[in-house]
Amino acid sequence: MNTKQEKLEAFGRLLDIMDDLREKCPWDQKQTLESLRHLTLEETYELSDAILQNDLQEIKKELGDVLLHLVFYAKIGSEKESFDIADVINSLNEKLIFRHPHIYGDTKVKDEEEVKQNWEKLKLKEGNKSILGGVPKSLPSLVKAYRIQDKVKGIGFEFHDAEDAWKKVDEEIQEFHAETDLDKKEQELGDVFFSLINYARISGINPDSALERTNLKFISRFQKMEGLAEEQDLKLADMSLEEMDVLWEKAKKLS
């Protein structure tokens, strides 16, 4: 592994390269905070994919892409004379020190849960008007639900255990089945999803990761099913559901 000095030198070289690109590259010159935004989201999802695949070399590559974007935003901020990368890092350093009084102060904590509770209380002291004020509006709905639940847990708004949370799931499913109005049924389905995400979270399962693993598993099996059909000179679109189900079961055995 690299020494601290080597890491600092590598970061300094990145800053120099960013300066060069901003000055000399036509594409980099045109970028703005707004134009980079959707590209940053794409890079973040690519990093997420690499993490789910546990591909360490790909994770390294995608971390570099994300880091480039962070440095790029800071460069634009310096051009606007608003902030630079040092301001970004110093602000982060101060926040981390303030939110970890059990490390940099006299506060005592017994476990991870107390750390999270203190974290949310300290955020309110920083001027946040609501525990939920820091939940990004643009988060995907499933991830947003998880973050909302995790944040309110920080002040004790939480079921006692997973069994109590599952009772809520049962209750919401019954209300969903009983509703006949389509608009209200949609609302009830949202409640089902929210309660199921909550149950998963309390059980120690990340629902977003769980769903994505299922997505990947389905894609893999379906593509194997397509391959089996092609081997038999068959077209899935011309097959009955029962015939496709036979291929599906074979594809599952190949997974």
Automatic annotation (TrEMBL):
Superkingdom classification of source: Bacteria
Domain NTP pyrophosphohydrolase MazG-like residues, every copy: 31-103
Entry keyword Lipid biosynthesis: no
EC number: 3.6.1.8
Catalytic activity: ATP + H2O = AMP + diphosphate + H(+)
One Gene Ontology MF term: ATP diphosphatase activity
CDD domains assigned to the protein according to its UniProt record, in alphabetical order: NTP-PPase_MazG_Cterm, NTP-PPase_MazG_Nterm
Pfam families named among the record's database cross-references: MazG
Family: Belongs to the nucleoside triphosphate pyrophosphohydrolase family.
Protein name: Nucleoside triphosphate pyrophosphohydrolase
Source organism per UniProt: Chryseobacterium panacisoli
Gene name of this polypeptide: mazG
